[in-house]
Amino acid sequence: MSSEIRTTTLPSGEAVLVLGQGTWKTGEDRGRRADEVAALRLGLDLGITLIDTAEMYAGGGAEEVVAEAITGRRDETFLVSKVLPTNASQAGVKRACENSLKRLATDRIDLYLLHWPGTVPLAETVEAFEALKNAGKIRHWGVSNFDTDEMEELVGLPSGGNVQTNQILYNLSRRGPEFDLAPWSLKRGIPLMAYSPVEQGALARNARLDAVAARHNATSAQIALAWVMAQPGVIAIPKASRQEHVRQNAAALDIALTAEDFADLDRAFPPPTRKRGLEMI
Ligand code: NAP
Fold first, then answer.
1. Which residues form a coiled coil (predicted)?
2. How far is the CA of 23 from the centre of ligand 1 (A)?
3. Which of 3, 103, 145, 165 yields a CA-CA distance of 20 to 30 A from 280?
């Protein structure tokens, strides 16, 4: 675990580590389940207590793997799950949440997100989230894959200002959000949760990271992760089913990038100069 525990603060005032564990593609293959559970448990041992999952992943299978991994450790875990936009109606959200709670074998989700914007009026989904909060089924709610205009609409709704995060695709090769969404979020104190922070493994093999990695005696994936975690108000949620990767990701918390590193990375992965629509994987 990092000597200096780096956290960011949710609008609720709660501090969360700038590193979490993702679970997309987890729970798809029974033969890999033991490894997936062991990797998540190792992450918890290393202090990476935020776990991100969704009802969509493996059709609920990922939530079941998470349940196994956090058995006996629920109270130390900060659980994030997501409702599909097709379930985002008042009744749909309630039902989806109950199903997620069952699969997760818990009585509450710490942060419940709308997976991406859909056709159900946002005000209805927000109302459903607030009702779940009042019932103690979720502690906080947020959104995912929302661009700046969608965030503007959200915070203008009754209780819309209770949004705790926006989970988006953000990494060195996907810097579009820096043009407006990231400054907008930072100004309002709403942390971004960066998904696919190593571009689903592609940045681990990208030679443009080699020089900075060599300076820190680190891997390219660690540099990609350190860069995301160095952005103000950003939480990275890499997925790692190999224990070696979990260890390396935890160790990336200790990498302090220098001004020279940031300049080199800006040259290799230039920041945006104009607005681009938010990308999604
Ligand atoms: P990612 O975390 O960028 O990449 C995962 C891949 O990178 C895996 O193949 C993993 O390998 C590998 N990896 C992890 N750490 C590594 C390291 N230190 N060195 C080398 N390779 C490493 O991609 P992601 O899974 O798409 O995104 C992360 C999480 O974000 C997801 O799991 C999910 O929870 C969330 N997400 C959310 C959305 C959304 O719409 N809200 C969309 C996509 C993802 P191993 O598994 O073999 O260890």
1. none
2. 7
3. 103
Which residue's structure tokens are 């997925």?
Answer: 239
CA distance linking residue 8 with residue 5, whole number of Å: 10
Q: Whose CA is nearest to atom 16 of ligand 1?
A: 245
Ligand 1 atom closest to residue 238's alpha carbon, by position in its atom list: 2
CA 93 to chain centre: 20
- pTM of the predicted protein model: 0.97
Catalytically annotated residues: 57
Task: Enter the DSSP assignment of 19.
Answer: B
Nearest CA to ligand 1 atom 37: 195
* Element containing residue 7 per DSSP (H, E): strand 7-9
How far apart CA 188 and CA 191 sit, in angstroms, is 9
pLDDT tens digits, 186-224? 999 999 999 999 999 999 999 999 999 999 999 999 999
* Cβ of residue 199 lying under 6 Å from some atom of ligand 1: yes
Residue 197 Cβ inside 6 Å of ligand 1? The answer reads: yes
Ligand 1, residue 280: give the atom nearest the CA. 40
pLDDT band at 5 (very low <50, low <70, confident <90, very high): low
Band of residue 2 on the pLDDT scale cut at 50, 70, 90: very low
What is the per-residue pLDDT across 140-183, written as a single tens digit (0 to 9) for each? 999 999 999 999 999 999 999 999 999 999 999 999 999 999 99
Pocket flag, ligand 1, residue 237 (CB < 6 Å): yes
Domains of the chain: 16-198+236-242 (3.20.20.100)
Q: Which of 125, 120, 121 is nearest to 143 (CA)?
A: 125
* The ligand 1 atom nearest the CA atom of 39: 48
216 labelled binding-site residue: no
Give the pairing of strands 234-236 and 138-144: unpaired
Sequence letter at residue 9: T
